Amino acid sequence: MQDPYPVYDLWRAQGDLVWWEDYGMVAATSHRAVQTLLKDRRFGRAVPPAQAHPIPERLTPFYDIEAHSLLELEAPDHTRLRGLILRAFTSRTIAALGPFIDDLAAALVADLPPPGTPVDLLDALCRPLPVRVIAHMLGVPDSRCTDLLDWSNAMVGMYQAGRTRAMEDAAVAASRAFSAFLSDLIETRRAAPGDDLLSQLIAAEEDGERLSRAELISTVILLLNAGHEATVHTLGNGIATLIATGQGARACDPQALPALTEEVLRHDPPLHLFTRWCYTEVELYGHRFHPGDQVACLLGAANRDPDTFADPAVFAPGRNARAQVSFGAGIHFCVGAPLARMEIAAALRALFSARPDLTLAEPPRYAPIYHFHGLEALRVA
């Protein structure tokens, strides 16, 4: 968990696919295999009926939200839902957020303690930036950001390996609270639409269809849970690497910043594993998949494949890393990728422009969880 990359290298040397005993499934280790599986429509996220297990009643509040999540659906439901979401989540909508994100990043950096005073950048910058952006997009006051964070953190625990009953109970409680909050907010926006993403999602229409209340709630929760957690750890991992390698000055160069952002996403991504179900018998890379098989796409391994990226273990901000798979691929490519790129670039630029001489106050340590990969703290001075 502290450094999975040498293990990925060992597995990749054995072939495009390996058998992962701990998970009881095949794992794709190479860039080409991960890309193929993510894009192949014979594989998908929706659980095949034969593999679906009864959901315990105590967990239904969480899984009722999952049932309408864009992330867990396939065509035709996925096609319809994504089309409606993209009518609100347009490139113009995201681009219009640029000045707000730049100002917010600058304000958070300006609030850091004086140079020389240790501070945890996860708490001071990496966590508040994405949650306040999402709150702004939804028209939610900053005073509710703590609630949004608490709900998101609790719900994301359901995706971790080795989750406990306590984690499940916390996720269910968060699901109830988050759903109730959004249900009230939706009613408010229906009565008085504003210039915010939720109002646009409510108004989005295609061929006479609109998002249902359940779909609206699931979509907003997905935008927060997927967008916030991943962005926090992309920033934390990236800032730690930039400080350790002494390359923070690149974040101040507008010409270098886009490539730097892609390399941050490639080198130490926040999500290392994404699973797919097989829907029909298919043979790939010497292995025959059967309907109902599950396969682990190792994004963290694909991003370090030497056949795609020269010297992949080296953090090289000048390289062309656009082939990184941290946002996934195929029909489930992250709908929030443009927003995440904007947030990452704004935070890095603001931080290293104001504090070019940052040093690590203590060695960064990753949280002991999988398949998320992020720091427990990022104390700098």
Describe it for me?
- It is a single chain.
- With 381 residues, the chain is an alpha+beta fold.
- Helices cover 48% and strands 10% of the residues.
- A hairpin with an 8-residue loop joins β11 and β12.
- α3 packs across α10 (165-191) and α4 (77-88) crosses α11 (197-203).
- The chain is globular and about 60 Å long.
- The chain starts with a helix and ends with a strand.
- The relative contact order is 0.20.
List the helices and strands and how they pair.
Blueprint: H1 5-12, E1 17-20, E2 25-28, H2 31-39, E3 43-44, H3 60-66, H4 77-88, H5 91-96, H6 98-110, E4 119-120, H7 121-126, H8 128-138, H9 145-156, H10 165-191, H11 197-203, E5 205-206, E6 209-210, H12 213-245, H13 257-267, E7 273-278, E8 282-284, E9 287-289, E10 294-298, H14 299-302, H15 337-354, E11 365-366, E12 375-377, E13 379-380
Parallel strand pairs: 2-10
Antiparallel strand pairs: 1-2, 3-7, 4-13, 5-6, 7-10, 8-9, 11-12
